[in-house]
Amino acid sequence: MQDHRRALGRGFNWLGGATIAAKIIDFATILAMLLFLSKQQVGIASLVISIGMVVEALNGLGTAEALIQAKSVSRPQLDTLFWYVVGAATLVAGLTLATAPAVAWLYGMPAMAQYFVAIAIKQPLVGAALVPLALMNRSLQFERIAIVNVCATFGAALTRLVLGASGAGVWALVAGYVASGLFIMIGAWIAHPFRPRLGVQPASIRPLARFGVRSAASNISEQMFKNIDYMLIGWFYGPALLAVYRVAFDIAMEPAMAVGTLVNRTALPVFARAAGAPAELGSILLWSLGKIAFLVTPLMVALMLAAGPLTALLHDSHGASYAAAAMPLRLLAAAALLRIVTQLFSTMMIGIGRPGLAARLALTTLGLLACSILAVGCTVPAGPGIIAASAIWLAIYPPVLLWLAARLRREWRVRPGPLLAVFAMPVAGSAAMVLVVAGGGLVPGLQHPASQLAVVIAATALTYLGLSRYARRQVPS
Questions:
Q1: Which of 109, 144, 327, 350 is 20 to 30 Å from the Cα of 193, by its Cα?
Q2: Is the pLDDT at 161 greater than 80, yes or no?
Q3: What pTM did the predictor assign?
């Protein structure tokens, strides 16, 4: 168990630093891009990238997860898997180009089809990086993965920023999306050199492919879950309102998802190694939830407090304000914490060899989200529509988490009490932060949005400082 905890700690530290650096770079450039693009352009780019993310979920057909959890792999399996993945990615790229005109027609924007070239180009790039990245994950080489991720994020962000400042419009965001795939491929091959041989043995990867199909269903469902709201809101309400929703969503969800991705990447190979020991699974799950509670709870509360002043300060290239994103931001920030907790359980299921259960969980939440947003789009007008769509995110998770808690207790004998207890101090610290911000709002001269935002930032920093000191006192000397 100590080995598993050391692996978790090392992975969290390395991937944590990389994820924080990458998200700061990514987030800062996205906000900067708002100055160079109109809401219409941001909305169109969001649609294209959302569709691209769903297509990209087909990468490897789930074989990356299969490779990570496999007991052993041979060199012929790796060679065959590489060509299998690259061939599938090339086929997906061709199908993407073929269907682009139909998708653009569906949205009533024929010019959108040209941007699907970027989606097609990215597929072989990420396919070629799959085996080296999976091998690094399998070997717990978190340091190298961290470096690859940071460099790729920096390269993509720089691409976006340069093209945006040059007036490239939608292409600036779309090209940044492709550039991330290129830099990940280059980084993966440098960090873990892999030279595939030409010979293939299809029979050797059948177990990996079978596992991968089930895991791919979970990945596709997850990406549909992440992007179905963009696609539906863009369809019902158009690109400009999608841009407002996208700004709220990114500000609320990206920080939480950064932590969630970090915890999941760190925990997945460790879950796989502890698959046969239920007691250790509970320990790993408790550790992972503790990190999520500590890092995400105060931040989401801070975003709810900062929603008004922050969105009032954001404008597009025409000077139009993003203030309408404030209420969606508050709702989505509350939902973000519940979302990453749910995704941790999905990661555990994949790690212990239950991808089918993870896929059912993803499909259930996807169905709830899609049907609810469809109902909103058909019945609620544009302005309140994005607020209602944001509220749906908050409404779907409580019943899902109750089902997960019952399943944990029944199948793995993990009681929900200790899992809930890790949120006690972060919630107490967040409550104190709310009081501090409320008091600051009564001070004369702090009514400007920038001043209000500064108060929230200061209160958030004090909250994390207090929680850090508390956590250090709990560590046995």
A1: 350
A2: yes
A3: 0.82
